[in-house]
Design brief:
This protein is 66% helix and 0% strand. It is mostly helical and 83 residues long. It starts with 7 loop residues before the first helix and ends with a helix.
Length: 83
């Protein structure tokens, strides 16, 4: 058995929901915890959610993440020194 102390505002909200559903506060808490546990079990991290898209629309150049500063300097030099 577990006991929980709730702040007054949560206690009032819990009581209102229990009255509205015509059930006990215990049942409302149980339902809420079951939903939370189900959500936690099915929730994926952001990497897992986007993994299939990583590199899908890439340029095919695997060095871009390490040479971007050099490439940017080249483009800026061409832009400002070509006149």
């Amino acid at each position: 058995m577990t006991s929980v102390r709730l702040p007054t505002d949560l206690e009032h909200k819990l009581a209102m929901i229990a009255r509205k559903k015509r059930t006990s506060k215990t049942n409302v808490i149980r339902e809420a915890l079951e939903k939370l546990f189900t959500q936690e079990d099915t929730e994926q991290d952001s990497y897992a959610l986007g993994e299939e898209y990583f590199g899908k629309y890439g340029s095919g150049d695997g060095s871009l993440s390490t040479t971007y500063k050099h490439k940017l300097k080249e483009k800026l030099n061409v832009k400002y020194h070509s006149h």
